[in-house]
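Hi V.,

You were right to ask for the full record rather than a summary. Here it is.
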Amino acid sequence: MPDTPVDPTSPRSYPSDMESRVAVLEQIARTTTAMLERMDHRMDLMSAEFRSGFDGQRTSMDSLRAAMDRLSAEHRADFRWLLGIMLAGFAGLLGVMAHGFHWL
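Predicted structure:
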């Protein structure tokens, strides 16, 4: 596009094709505004989906943590029971050995 002179050459204040150029720019501005509104709406939807997915993950992580706590408590109880059996067996073995070797 050639430069528009500052001093008007015609009695009008701007060239005749300027109206069509301004109309095109106005149309571009309208479509850009509509596109930005659609993008804003999509970003809001994506943000809401992300938040709901994050809440779902938090819920599943809490349930996983509760299940792990239950398993840990069960393992602790099993370990204590086995430790008790082993200590009682060891004490019984020592008692049998003491009786056999006439220590008692």
